[in-house]
Design brief:
The complex is a heterodimer. By secondary structure, chain A is an alpha+beta fold. Chain A is 30% helix and 34% strand. In chain A, the strands form two sheets. Chain A has a four-stranded mixed sheet with strand order 1-4-6-2, with helices on both faces. In chain A, strands 5-3-7-8 form a four-stranded antiparallel sheet. The longest helix of chain A is centred in the middle third of the chain and has 18 residues. The N and C termini of chain A lie far apart (39 Å). The C terminus of chain A is likely disordered. A five-stranded mixed sheet of chain B has the order 2-1-5-3-4. Classes of the chains: A alpha+beta, B alpha+beta.
Chain lengths: 147, 81
């Protein structure tokens, strides 16, 4: 499936294979790996959860809107759920298009939209044993672990 | 009428549960339901202005009416990616 949630490692090459097409002269990929945070009190992992039924619907909307707005051939969107260690990929977007401009633009659009609309949440698990929900509406701060 | 409310992410921690069924008088809209849910679970109050709601797995406006049998989801700010 071209839009899905998974609890297993995302196979990027498999996704690339799914969007390939004879008329696609460009394939653009975006991967979002879990980033290390705060060397003085390192992040251990992120725990992702979702309203799965709705998340799939919203991901499907992102895909169809990306295909409506940009002259692209195919858009694949996969998001991980469950616990991910630093460096593991939580989300992958793969876009094929006849030409690269549309592939880059649609890929960027899809990841930006996904972050706005798809009901997925993540909890930071710190080496201290603390856990904190990531809140994108909170001001950027290095004090998140103190909550 | 009776609805099911689902809490997700940090809202589930605040409410202390993932779902509950609630009996409502007819004519309730989502903003009224938000008042009621914050009264039931005061820990939700601090994120009230950031909450979105979904009815039957679709985002819904705060003036949308709630109907018998609806599945209402409390959606705190999403954090995918």
């Amino acid at each position: 499936m071209i839009v899905r949630l998974t609890r297993e490692t995302i196979d990027l090459l498999d996704l690339v294979g799914r969007v390939r097409s004879p008329e696609a002269g460009a394939i653009c990929t975006f991967q979002g790996p879990v980033r290390a945070e705060r060397p003085e009190n390192p992040l251990l992992a992120l725990e992702y959860s979702a309203y799965e039924e709705m998340a799939l619907r919203e991901m499907e909307k992102v895909r169809s809107e990306a295909m409506r707005r940009f002259p692209v051939t195919e858009v694949a969107i996969v998001h991980r759920l469950g616990r991910l260690e630093i460096g593991e990929v939580s989300v992958a977007i793969v876009v094929s298009a006849p030409h690269r401009e549309a592939a880059f633009a649609a890929c960027r659009y899809a990841i930006d939209e996904l972050k706005q609309s798809v009901p997925i949440w993540k909890k930071e698990i710190w080496t201290t044993g603390e856990t904190t929900w990531v809140d994108p509406t909170a001001e950027e701060s290095d004090g998140a672990g103190s909550r | 009428m009776r609805i099911t409310v689902h809490y997700f992410g940090p809202a589930a921690d605040d409410a202390g549960l993932a779902r509950e069924t609630i009996d409502l008088p007819p004519g309730v809209v989502l903003s009224g339901l938000a008042d009621l849910l914050c009264a039931r679970h005061p820990a939700l109050e601090h994120r009230r202005s950031h909450l979105r709601f979904a009815v039957n797995a679709e985002y819904a406006a705060r003036d949308a009416h709630v109907r018998d049998g609806d599945e209402v989801a409390v959606i705190p700010p999403v954090a995918g990616g």
